[in-house]
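Course exercise 7: structure representation. Students receive a sequence record and must write out the corresponding structure in token form. The form below is the worked example handed out in class, using glutathione transferase (213 residues). Read each field label carefully; the graders check that inputs and outputs are placed in the correct fields and that the protein name is recorded exactly as given.

STUDENT ID: A-19
EXERCISE PROTEIN: glutathione transferase
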Amino acid sequence: MIVVHHLNNSRSQRVLWLLEELDIEYEIKYYERDEKTMLAPDSLRQVHPLGKSPVITDGDLTLAESGAIIEYLVERYGNGRLVPPPNTSERLRYTYWLHYAEGSAMPPLLLNLILNRFGLGDSQAMSAFVAPQIKLHYDYIEGELRKSIWFVGSYLTAADIQMSFPLELLAMLPQEILSRPSIGEFLERIHTRKAYLRALERGGKYDFANSIP
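STUDENT ANSWER:
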């Protein structure tokens, strides 16, 4: 049985969504962030040395990192669902977005979060680097979603699930999301999917599901 070690308001929500889309049985072990630091509890380190979420266990396997988890679940349990056929241009595009989410889309948002938390929202680092990087990447994503309603084409793939978290995080910044209607429409599409709603019901508190202004 797959066990998802699930932290509230975290990337692990998209793992729950993927499992619901694949209609796979799973269990959830719940963890809560510290209200002051917003960090995961130390108990997660008993599952994985880094003490971060998402982490899944599946028999003797313990696996961290969203992208690795998504690839494992799709390959192990997907039976060809939510992934384009191999050796196609769509498959290459799928792989690109699967890695782009954490490798390129998330870093400027995390820097924005950290700088603001430490009172550096008006710093030179924000204006000279972080804000321009947010604009660069999310204007690019907006342009791609104007071409197609999903990241790989006309149907949902696991790449869309992986990309959901940075876009939901972006939507917490009203000035950023209001100028990018295609991203807003993407979020509205995923937030009405039955599997997404089932994942919310099982996962509990997830502030980013209602983040569109």
